[in-house]
Design goal:
alpha+beta, four-stranded antiparallel beta sheet, two-stranded parallel sheet, transposase activity, Transposase
Length: about 180
C-alpha cells in the first residue's frame, strides 16, 4: 500500500532518505513516498492478523522484498497478486522450504487465441479462488486507510515527521482495533 508524500507531477523533496518515486498499479498513478508491506495470517470472516509489517521506498519491487524477507519461511502457503509470478523461484522454494506461492494466472504474451480460450475457464476459476483468499489483506489496507488515513502524508515535512506519521497512524489503528 502506498504512503504518498506527493504525486509525481511534482518533485519529491520530503524525507529523501526513506522515500522515492514509485508506481501504484491499483490506482494507476506515479507518486513519491514509501510503501507499507504486510504479511498476515488468514482468519476466516475477519481481517488478517499481521505477522510482519515493513516500510520500504516506493520503488521497491514487491517480489524482491518477498525474496529477501519471507521466502525462507517453511511450511506455508502464501497468496499473492500477479507480481509474484516467478515459476522457477517458487518451484525451488517449494522443494527447499515446503512453502508455495499461489497467484492468479497471468496471461502469456504471444499465446494464440485458441489456446487462451481453451484454458480460460480453468484459469478464471483458479484466479477467482486465489483472489477471494487474498481479498482480506486488501481489506486490511483499506481499513488502515479508512481508520487512520495512513496513506495521505502530503503535510509531512521531514523524515522524522514521515516516520512518526507512518508508525503513529499504524499504532492508532491497531489501538482502535483492540478497543
Amino acid at each position: 500500500m502506498p504512503i504518498i508524500t506527493c504525486l509525481a507531477k511534482r518533485s519529491g523533496k520530503v524525507a529523501k532518505e526513506i522515500t522515492d518515486k514509485g508506481y501504484c498499479s491499483t490506482k494507476g498513478m506515479y507518486y513519491y513516498g514509501m510503501k507499507l508491506h504486510a504479511l498476515g495470517f488468514r482468519r476466516i470472516n475477519k481481517l488478517p492478523h499481521p505477522e510482519q509489517i515493513v516500510f520500504t521506498h516506493a520503488s521497491v519491487n514487491d517480489l524482491a522484498l518477498y525474496k529477501d524477507l519471507w521466502s525462507e519461511i517453511e511450511n506455508r502457503t502464501f497468496f499473492g497478486d500477479k507480481i509474484y509470478n516467478n515459476d522457477s523461484f517458487f518451484q525451488n522454494m517449494k522443494a527447499t522450504f515446503n512453502s508455495e506461492m499461489l497467484t492468479p494466472v497471468k496471461a502469456v504474451k504471444g499465446m494464440t487465441n485458441a489456446l487462451k480460450k481453451l484454458d480460460r475457464a480453468t484459469n478464471d476459476l483458479y484466479s477467482r479462488a486465489v483472489s477471494k483468499i487474498r481479498q482480506p489483506i486488501e481489506s486490511l489496507f483499506n481499513w488502515l486507510i479508512e481508520k487512520a488515513n495512513i496513506q495521505k502524508a502530503s503535510k509531512v515535512r521531514s523524515t522524522k515527521g514521515l516516520t512518526l506519521h507512518a508508525y503513529g497512524r499504524l499504532a492508532a489503528a491497531f489501538i482502535i482495533l483492540i478497543f
